[in-house]
Structures are given as structure tokens and as C-alpha cells.
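[step 3/7] fold_predict: job queued, chain A
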Amino acid sequence: MGEEIVSDGVVAENETQAQNLWQCREGISEASQHFGGVYKYDLSIPLPELYSLVDACRDRMNEAGLLSADDESKPVLDVLGYGHMGDSNLHLNVSVRRYDKEVEKALEPWVYEWVSKRSGSISAEHGLGLAKKEFIGYSRSETMVRLMKQIKQLYDPNGIMNPYKYI
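[step 4/7] structure written:
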């Protein structure tokens, strides 16, 4: 905040406050699923544009006629994001009343293209799952993917440290 990177925020003054803040952060994912489901993305985006994807995604859902907090006929309730500024990690969550193919078409590959244009990563802290395997080319070259697989095989030959992940 002192360096004007952040316009507003809260800093814990003690362990209890830190734990309470962490509980709030951890509760976002659970709360966003309360009314239906969530399309989730774990992305890495350059810090100056970290939250811009949330706004752009909300605009896209509005323009597609898919978003409304009040109209039950529209599948998307809202678009929210949270993450870690220290490593430019954004958890993009599209909260929905129900899963819907039109929402999926509006999101993918658009989210990956948006991230790619900013030289970000489509998979940040949780590894790359099988569902996003086909999209890795938006942020990593074939050579890079091959190297990541070799490193994973070297350190986890039995696939037990991050099971069910492509990389």
C-alpha cells in the first residue's frame, strides 16, 4: 500500500487476526458454490493486470446475456477473483446456478487466450489437471511441457505427490 501497488487492504496485527483473514479467504471457494456450481481457473497473470481478467470475464458474461444476480433464467450469478499478489496468482471463479454449455463456450478457450496475450500461465499453483491438458499450449511450448514432465517423473516416478494431474 505504501508503494501504491495496492489501493486498499488489511494487514493482520496478530496471529488471531491472521487466522481470521485466512478463514475468510479459504471460505470464498466454498461460499461461491452455495447457489450451484463454480467454473474455476488457477492462473498466473502479470501483477498490473491481476484483477483485470475478473472485470473482463464479467463483461463477457454480461455481453453474452448469461449473467444476472436476480434473473433465475441466466446461469451465471457473478464472476469473482482472489489470489496472491506475491506470485501473481489469481483464482478466477465463475459462480453459476447450474453448469451450462453456453457458459463453457464463452469461457474456453477465451480465458486461456486472455492469459496468453499477457504472457501468463493457465495453471499456477495446483499443477495442470487432465481437464486443462489440451490448453497448455496457450502458455507453454512443447519443449517446456516435455521438460516439466521429465522433472515430474524424476522427482515423482510413482505419481503419488500430485496424483491425477497431467503435469
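[step 5/7] annotate
The helical segments are 15-32, 52-63, 101-107, 110-117, 142-155.
The beta strands are 37-44, 76-84, 89-96.
exit 0
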